[in-house]
Description:
By secondary structure, the chain is an alpha/beta fold. It has one domain: Rossmann fold. It is built from five helices and four strands, in the order βαβαβαβαα. The protein has helices at about 15-30, 50-55, 90, 120-140, 150-160; strands at about 5-10, 35-40, 80-85, 105. The longest helix is centred in the C-terminal third of the chain and has 23 residues, at about 120-140. The protein is globular, with a radius of gyration of 15 Å.
Amino acid sequence: MTQPYNVLFLCTGNSARSILAEAILRKDGGDRFRAFSAGSQPKGEVHPFALELLRTMNQDTAFARSKSWDEFATSDAPKMDFVFTVCDSAASEACPVWPGQPMTAHCAVPDPAAATGTDAERRLAFADAYRQLSNRISAFLSLPLASIDRMSLQGKLREIGETRHSLL
């Protein structure tokens, strides 16, 4: 078996979307992937609704902590194969230089942590973000990574990122 692919999910606060994406890939990616998440301006804690949703879905949350993307830009950090931004804010920021020249893509998902309304409505926003991320990660996992050329792969990643959430 080849080495697992390292995948980093980025958002600004690293409290909701990137944490959910990391959890999904940890669960669905099996031994083929190692998932990580980080933020440009980490909140310092994972949103309680994100943790609640993951626990409700019987997913491990021991990995979940809000951390800076600086942890992954050092020479001793794991070499990333893929870096995905999951919010528009992080996508527009100047990112660190990632060791290993990973493939990158932007997959915007509305921020459930910014949702307003009742707790039930806010929980629904987290469930919707999870669904959108899960659908995009599923599409990513179906790509023939070992046999596709870099340019074609970049195009496929862009297509996945541009998929409108209403179609998912």
